[in-house]
């Protein structure tokens, strides 16, 4: 294999890698925008009645980013967001507050 074809092959793989990387960054950016604009205020309200605000916010934001919804109110109503309701810990307890 000549130096010229090796360089061309390297260039093709580099371009493909950068395109893939930009698509991943774009997807993460969309989730980040959603989390800041929708999840933050919804989770702030959802966790407003608990005395454990920090862990509640951590898990609520994590669940919101995955499920793209947060149930209404400060407790219960999980049936309105099935993904949020069905995500469980290894022990089988609800992961989302």
TrEMBL record:
As given in the record, the signal peptide range reads: 1-25
Keyword vocabulary terms for this entry: Signal
Q: Does the keyword Signal apply?
A: yes
InterPro entries noted in UniProt: GASA
Q: Which Pfam families match?
A: GASA
Q: Per its UniProt entry, which superkingdom is the organism in?
A: Eukaryota
Per the record, the similarity remark reads: Belongs to the GASA family.
The molecule here is called Protein RSI-1
Organism equals Rehmannia glutinosa
Q: Which classification does the entry list for the species?
A: Eukaryota, Viridiplantae, Streptophyta, Embryophyta, Tracheophyta
């Amino acid at each position: 294999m000549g130096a010229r074809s090796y360089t061309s092959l390297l260039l093709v793989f580099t371009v493909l890698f950068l395109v893939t990387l930009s698509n991943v960054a774009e997807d993460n950016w969309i989730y980040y925008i959603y989390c800041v604009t929708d999840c933050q205020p919804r989770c702030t309200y959802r966790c407003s009645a608990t005395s454990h605000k920090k862990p509640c916010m951590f898990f609520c934001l994590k669940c919101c980013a995955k499920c793209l919804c947060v149930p209404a109110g400060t407790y219960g109503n999980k049936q309105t967001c099935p993904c949020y309701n069905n995500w469980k810990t290894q022990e089988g307890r609800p992961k989302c507050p």
